[in-house]
Amino acid sequence: MKRADVVIIGGGPAGMAAALSARAHGAEKVLLLERDNTLGGILPQCIHDGFGTLIMKERLTGPEYAEHFARLVQQDDIECLPETMVLEINKDLSLTAVNARDGMLPIQAGAIVLAMGCRERTRSQIMIPGSRPAGVYTAGTAQRLVNIEGLLPGRRAVILGSGDIGMIMARRLTLEGLEVEGVYEILPRPGGLTRNVVQCLEDYNIPLHLQHTVTAVHGRKRVEGVTVCPVDEQRNPLPGQERYIDCDCLILSAGLIPENELSEQAGVKMDPFTRGPIVDESFAASVPGIFACGNVVTVYDLVDYVTQSGEAAGKGAALFARGKLPPPEPLTCRPGENCAFIVPHALTPERCSEQVNLYLRVKETMKSVRITVKSGSQVLASKREKIVKPPEMAVVKITADKLRNLSPGTDITIDIRPVPEKEAK
User: CA-CA distances (angstroms) from residue 233 to 238, 252, 335?
Assistant: First the structure.
């Protein structure tokens, strides 16, 4: 049986950050397992820039960002097993992996970090009726075809969903000579970042049709066209308003789902809203010794946040493996007004460093707001924002000394409210 102080599952930005952090905090034997043949996760196919603006203070491409951390992993002499799939995780922190070199590989860990990332929703998950011809791709698959394989998915495309990858691919396909007829979004607002709406759609005159969806796919061997239709407030197609569009490919950008089959198998408690593990400030899950970070916990909008969560999880895992992680005495974080969710879900003051980042999303778009973190009537942190939107994550920082005065079991609430008119002036 192979043994390691900390085993990280997933070699994307979260996994690499966790491995580096675990080594930096005293874990002598760190093992990084990756099912692909290289480190980086999805980043090598993301050739656009915008990565690293918070951590590195510059705009890197995805491959540049991945290469930076992969080089650090190599310099730290962290053992990596590429093309290795984890089959099961047990509560005693043993796991079974498999690869072509070693066959079945039993591993005993002192702590485990889950960093498997997320996956795209497929056609079957969003239930588009019609035939099953070639030419229907998720946005990530189309991105890999173009950026890695050097292949074009078609000549005239319709994109369903305005997630960030979908909008980025609308621009990318246009630059490669495809005609993008339009981007269709079932919600009344874009699903991705505002900067991508501007830079990827508006700058290239690609239409964005809100409150529209695809109601049928046409063609037998290959996509010949799709039917699009506006929807009502309940997202039901409006009869008699269908429109047929000639196209030879349909690109789906209908959202991402945390990759948590292994998490559920290990028995960790899950958040039904984020569909990821419930974690504390060390990104420790409910099973002692199991930590989770990155898009496994919730789908972040910036890779910098993914890396930060990996650093916290790696530190927590190293301290746990060394027996130096204080026992949990959690303060529960609860979403308040216009707050959809908060990560982490709980805080143990004794585990906190000088400050803690709380990541959250709002339910509705609001302008001129104040984000307030409080316990009862005590305000722990407060932050003004000009605008908050559901696709864009907000971050609030709390200093650890504010938390240490609170009793275990105390609730912490985050509210997002409009700034009073007098204060706004």
Answer: 10, 22, 25
User: What is residue 423's predicted lDDT score, i.e. its pLDDT?
Assistant: 65
C-alpha to C-alpha distance for 144 and 197, rounded to whole angstroms: 21
Q: Are residues 200 and 300 in the same domain?
A: no
| Same domain as 311, residue 242 | no
Residue among 339, 343, 333 nearest 301 (CA) = 343
Q: What is the arithmetic mean of pLDDT over 16-29?
A: 97
Cis peptide before 326 (omega within 30 of 0): no
State which amino acid sits at residue 262.
L
pLDDT tens-digit series, residues 309-320: 999 999 999 999
Instruction: Report DSSP state, residue 301.
Output: S
User: Which tokens is 202 given?
Assistant: 């508006």
Question: Considering only CA atoms, which of 405, 177, 390 is closest in space to residue 301?
Answer: 390
First-last CA distance in the chain = 66
pTM of this prediction? Answer: 0.94
The DSSP code for 197 is: I
CA distance 228 to 241: 9
Number of separate helices (H) and strands (E) present in the chain: 10, 27
Identify the weakest region by mean pLDDT among 254-263, 345-354, 389-398.
345-354
Q: Which of 283, 310, 325 corresponds to the end of one domain? A: 325
